[in-house]
Automatic annotation (TrEMBL):
Family: Belongs to the peptidase M18 family.
Top class in the EC scheme: hydrolase
Name of the protein described by the UniProt record: M18 family aminopeptidase
GO biological process: proteolysis
Pfam families per record: Peptidase_M18
Transmembrane annotation, as ranges: none
The keyword Hydrolase is annotated on this UniProt entry: yes
Reported cofactor(s): Zn(2+)
UniProt GO cellular component terms: cytoplasm
EC numbers, comma separated: 3.4.11.-
InterPro entries referenced in this protein's UniProt entry, alphabetically: Peptidase_M18, Peptidase_M18_dom2
Amino acid sequence: MSKKTSKKLYQETKRKLFQERPLGWDRLRDKEEEVFEYARGYRDFISQVKTERECADFILTRAREAGFSLFEEATPKSERLIFTNRGKALALAVRGEEGPRGLKIIASHIDSPRLDLKPNPLYEEMDLAYLKTHYYGGIKKFQWLARPLAIHGVVIKADGRRVDFVLGEEGPVFCINDLLPHLARKAQGEKKLSEAIAGEKLNVLFGGLPFPAEEGAAERVKLGVLKILSDRFGLVEEDFVSADIEIVPAGPARDVGLDGAFVGGYGQDDRICAFTSLTALLEARRLPETVLLLFLDREEIGSDGNTGAKSRFLELVLSRLLRLWGERALEADSVLELLFRTRAISADVTAGMDPDWPEVHEKRNDAKMGRGVAISKYTGHGGKYGASEARAEYMGWLRQVLNRAGVTWQAVDFGKVDEGGGGTVAKYLAFQGLDIVDMGPPLLSMHSPFEICHKVDLFETHRAYRAFLEAE
C-alpha cells in the first residue's frame, strides 16, 4: 500500500471526485429576501387557484398581461402565443431566435387529487342535506374527513349560460363527517386503513334548515338548499348534470415551521411546477430556441381524455405554429421531425424523504428536502414499468446547463424498488420522439390536502427551468 497522503490532498481529491449534494440554503443565503418574496407569490397563487380551470384562467391572464396573444387573434408577426384547450388545458409558445427549427418544451399538469360531485349528487337523509362524490386521483380517503372543505364549480345551464361559483372559502364551509371513536372500533378500527373509509361514505354535509312548509312535507331540507342555489345563482337540480364541481380543502396556503422554511397547501402536485415554469418563461432574458409550455389536465387519472397528455393537443399546437410562421408546407412528417429535434422537461414533483418513514425510502437515491430541484432519469415502478427513461447524452447536457447556472440539483429515484413508484406525463410525450426527463421539487405529504414544499426547492426549480429555457 502507498503511504498516507496529507489531509489537504485527501480533501482536494475528495472534492474533485465525490458528488456534492449541498444544502440549497447554503448557496442562497445572499438571496434570502428574493427566495422568500418568490415564495409569497407562490403561496398566494395556490391559495387562489384550486382547480384546473382556475389555474388555466390564471395562466391565461398572466400571459395576456405579458403580451401574449390568443392564436385566434394572431398574425404571422405574433411571437408570443396562447393556445387553449376547452378551458382545462393550455399552451404558451414563444418564438426563439432560431424560429421553430429547434424546440424546448416544459410540460406540467394542473389537475390535482380531489372529490368530484356525482351527476345526481344532492339528497336528504334524516333531515340533513348531503352531496354524493366520486374521488379523483390517488387519495387517502381518511384525510378528507372532519376538515373544512370548499366547493368550486362551473355550471352550464339549460339555456347555455355559464355560472361560476366558489363556496366555502369565505363564510360557511362544508365537511365530510367522521365516526366518533366510541363507536368506531368495529366499523373502522378493525379494518385495514385502505378499507376503513368506503368511497360511498365520502358524502359532503351541505345543509340542515328545512324549507318553510306544512309539517310532514317531504325533503324540506333538500328543497331549502336548492332554493338558496336558485336565489344566488339561478340554478335548479338538473343543472348538476352539466357541471364541473369540485370539492377541495378550504382556506389559504400557509407558511410552515417556526422559521417559515416551508409552504403548506393544497394542490402543489403539480401546480408548483406550473407556477415555476410560467415565471421562468416570463423572466427569461433570451430564448435561443422556440419554447412551448404545456399545462395539461387529467394526469392524476392516467392522462386520458381530450385535455390530457394522451390527446393530440401538442400536435395541433405545433401544426398551427408551423402554419402561422410559414416554416414549411405542412406534410404529415413536418411536426414529427420537429418533435424528434425537441428537448423537453416533464415538470412534476417527486416524493421528499420523510425521516419518520425510512423503511419506504432509499436514502442514497431519494430526494431530500432543501437540496434543490430533483431530476428523475426514470420513474415507473418495479422493473421500470410504465415510464420513459432519459438517455445519458441528454442527462449530460442538462447537467451542464444546471451547473453553469449554479442551480442546486439532485439526481433522485422514487422510493425503494419494490415499494411502489409513480408515473408522469413523460412517457406519453416520449412516445412523440422527443428527449425528455422528469424534473421538479420534492414534496412531503404528497397527494394529501396539505402538501409541503421547501422554499429553497421551490426557488431552485424556478431557476432550473429558466436555465433550461435560456440554454443553447
